[in-house]
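seq as requested:
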Amino acid sequence: MKKPNSSIIRLLIFILSLSILTLSSFSVAAATKPQELFGIDVKTDDNVERIAIRLSDYIRPQSTFFKDNLVIDFPNTVIKETLQKDYADSKFIYKIHAWQFKAKPYVARIVIEFKKEVAYDLYSLLGKNEVVVEIGDDVALPLHIAVSNPIRRAKLPGAVPHLESKTIVIDAGHGGIDPGGISCSGMPEKKFTLPVALELEALLKAAGARVIMTRRTDQTTDFRKISDRTNKLKADIFVGIHFNYFEDSSAAGTETFYYNPFSIELAQYVHSALVKKLKRRNRGVRKDVLYTVHHTDMPAILVEVLYITNPEEERLVKSNQYQKMIAKGLYNGLDKYFKSISR
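struct tokens:
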């Protein structure tokens, strides 16, 4: 039997390899093909203004308040035409700007300027491929909220009657394959959330509370399972601990989110105590459709403690002493909340 020519074999292998590489590159390119932001509509209904942002695919954008404007970033998204429109007849909206904020990677940005302090709700519509911003006086809480009663330090150690036997679920945000946001020095958010959560657990246990942790190590968590488990446990409250991040490194301060009306009081007390303890910018308490606070049956909040993309705030949260201060601020708020509902 005649042996095949080795040069022909090498040529065939080369052609086959090139074909596989080309197909792989095409698949990757197709998988990462940016979606398109192609329209913004504003409608008024019963003193609520709705901004519908139309996209080619479903997306959950990142939003934050910066210099009293609502900034919404759409990752892996292109916008073909820069938009700047005035809304003279609007009760709440002054201007809307939309442009291609970054090209590598693609990020489209929308900035909404308001005529006065507003409340808002932001959510994504699956199936319609829209992001909706509802703006009004009563959609959610005002941007800046203060609890009038002063927060007093809890006296530890020793069981605290209004905390004793309460079941509190603490979620250290992200973990495992999910790094969360990345700080200005390159550290993942998950590295900051866990030590604060463990410090808070110790304070609550010393006060006699029953504490359930969603994770104790660098493990991947599923927010659907977290919500389901929290509901099955019939916990008294749920507290998610996160750190914020944003493209602009000057963004700073503390934000607290809730969804259900029965979570408002918890959000107010914890936010007020944390701002008082940390003495950083008060970015307010707001309603948002975040899965864990949306799908829990008890009062639930998600605290964005500080911005790890802000050099000064990242330096602070890297400190073990400051992490303990954060935990104490959270504890003070929980202490005040349970004291208020036990009267």
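Residues 20-31, 138-157 have pLDDT under 50 and may be disordered.
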